Every structure is written in structure tokens, then in C-alpha cells.
Amino acid sequence: MDAHKRHFSMAGKLALLLFAAMLAAVGLCALLIDWLGNALLGASLTLVVCAIVAPLIAQRYLARQLSLFRALSGSVASFRDGDFSFSVTRRSHDELDDLVEAHNELGRVLRDERQSLFQRELLLDTVVQNTPTALLLIESRGAIVYGNVAARQLFHDGRKVEGLKFPQLMENTPAPLREALGEGRDRLFSFEHAGQEETYHLARRDFHLNGRVHTLFMFKRLTAELNRQEVATWKKVIRVISHELNNSLAPITSLAHSGAELLRRGDHEKLGRIFETIEERARHLHGFLRGYSSVAKLPVPELESVEWAPFLSRLQQHYGFERGPIPSEPARFDPAQVEQALINVLKNAHESGSKEDEVTLTVRQIGRVVRVEVSDRGPGMSDAVLANALVPFYSTKRSGSGLGLALAREICEAHGGRIGLANRDGGGLTVSLTLPVE
């Protein structure tokens, strides 16, 4: 409220009270004089009235201010308890109006913020409750703090899981799920649920909440997606196999027909050449099938601690490359399998047309994984080739088997890692093999 709209300011009221108090003091002095000198009787009576009335006025004014302060204190206490519905009104007009208005505005802001926060919490809870990923939040003593709809359906027939002990809940789950939880790391697992085989991805994250360690388990159903990917992969494999078989069977069929015609005519001189060609194509098919078998029957990796310097020195005996800095700490992997994977990658790098000093191999440890990168300065790969390069038997080379990168991929994934392909700026390709440190 503007200053000119206030009837009386607090300063004016205090000045009036001081003036009344001064009159009261003068009155008391006059009374003393009157008693002593018996003079100014009328003035003394007036001053006595002032001395009586002034404290009453001051008491009434102070009572109103104390009532306002109590109202403000009670309203602030309500704010502290989370109740922002209170506001303060007063009929006086002075400087305290600014304080009252600021207090009421604070209440309005807090009410709006609380409403907005409630809407966001409601939206978040709706999203989390209805996500198809099963979520379980476990506190440090093993009690389940939170479980969404998917978790209740997966583990407890749709019933509430909050308050239950996580180990007890897991006792009634299928063995593959318990084994996945026992490994303590992210992984895929499959088990029969609702009468059909289901595949899930388990992820686990630890964090502090209200000063205590909590664990969030996430179970994502991947069956439909994996089925789609499996069908797509099989289609790619069938296309590659069909292409390879046609490349061999078509000439064999043609040569067999030509041989039969030559035999009918009695022209035996050209038969030897025809049989040699048929034999060469049959050997190619035999090698193709043998390569398929090697990919399909990759043995389980035998992990051991491997020092990088001697390992890379042995690798350089197969294909030369420029070596960058290497980690001082050893890594755990199957040296024979990883060596074979890197030989395949280095072979492709050399066959890309790069000079030997343009092929580089770097090893970097990033957190709990180690990344081995092989880079060249060849022509790189088109988008179509990048999309199919890791499919078994896919090759753009006339005499290529299409198994080198596919086998490297199988080896990386058997170690719990992955392989990646990316074109380089300025030309060339980088193949990265990422392996867990432990």
C-alpha cells in the first residue's frame, strides 16, 4: 500500500504515544506541585486524565500488533508443517502491511510450487508404475521399499511387494533368475513365465538415498525384440549362404551339363579341365561349411592374466602395426581367442590398401573395460557394408570368406564385451574391441 494511503503511520502513532506519555509525566509533576502548593487544580485534573488514558491507548495498539505477530508466527509454523493454505489479514494501514503482503505472497508461491510438484510426482509415478520394465528398490537390510506393477506381476502374482524381504521373495523365483542375481552384474537370462520362454535383461545399480545404501533392480523383457532381431539376423545369414551356394552350385551345374554333353560326343580331352573346376568349387564349399562350423562351435574362453607388452609383440609377428601407449596393468582374457580376433582385424586393415605404418593399434583402459582399437587409412565402409560387416559369411571381397569380423564379434561377446566399426575422419576405418578388465 502506498504511503499516502495510510491514515496513520507507525511513526505517527509512536509519536502520539510519546506525546501522551510526556503529558502524563507533566501531569504527574503538576500533581506534585498541586499537592505541595495547592495550585492549578483544573490543569492537574486534565493531566491526570491524560496519564490514565495514554497507557490504555498504548496497550490497545500494542495488543493489535502482538495479535498480528502471533498470526504470522502461527502461519509460518503451518508452512513448516507443509500447510500453505493460511494467509493473514488486518484492518490497520501502516508499514506492517508490506510484511503481511510479502507473507501472503510467499504462501501463494509455496501453494503453486506444491501443486506443480504434486503434478510432476503424479506424472512420474504413473510413468514408473506403468513401464514394462520391472523395478524393485531394496534398502540395505534387504527390505523391498518399492515395486512397480510389472514387478508385482513378475514376482508376486500382482500383489504388493513393499515391506517384504528381497531374499525371501526370490526363493520362489525360477533358478535362472536367482543365478542371474547371484552373479552381481548386468546380464541376459531366460526362464519360463506364464507358460512360455521369456528373455530378460537384468540391470543393477547401487546408490545412497537418505544416507543409506539402496539397490535398484531392473528386469527388462526382451523376448519380442530379440525375436525380431533373431529373424532379421537369420534373414541376413540365409541371404549370404544362398549367395555363396549359388556362386558354387551354378557353375557346378553348368559344368556337369557340359561334361555330360562332351561325354556324349566322345570329346574326352576337355573333361579333365571340367572336373578340375568342379573339384575347386567343391573345395570352396567345403571350406565355407568348415568356417561356419568354427563360428557355431566357439569354445568357452579360458581367462588368464595377460601382460600387454609381450602379447602385442607376438601379435606383431603376424601383421605389422604402429603401437601406441599401453596400460601398465594386465587384463584377463583368453589370449589365444583374442589374438585370433585381432589377427582377423589386422588382416582386413592390411588388405584395405593401407601401408604398414598407417595401421595403428592402441590399447586404453576406461574404467572397468579395456578398448583395443585397430585403425587403417583404407577407403572405409559404406553404410550398407557397416550394417552387414559383422554378419557371418558377408564379404565384399571376391575371395573373402566373410568370417573374420564375425568370428572377432563372437570372441568379444563370449568375453562379455563388444565390437564396433566406425569410419575415420580423413578416410579409413577403426575397429574397436571392448573387453571387461575383470
TrEMBL record:
Spans through the membrane: 39-58
Record keyword Iron present: no
GO molecular function: ATP binding
Annotated catalysed reactions: ATP + protein L-histidine = ADP + protein N-phospho-L-histidine
Residues in coiled coil: none
Domain Histidine kinase positions: 240-438
Record-annotated HAMP domain positions: 60-115
Annotated CDD domains: HATPase (cd00075)
UniProt keyword terms in alphabetical order: ATP-binding, Kinase, Membrane, Nucleotide-binding, Phosphoprotein, Transferase, Transmembrane, Transmembrane helix, Two-component regulatory system
Subcellular location: Membrane
This enzyme's EC code(s): 2.7.13.3
Name used for this protein in its record: histidine kinase
Species whose genome carries this gene: Lysobacter auxotrophicus
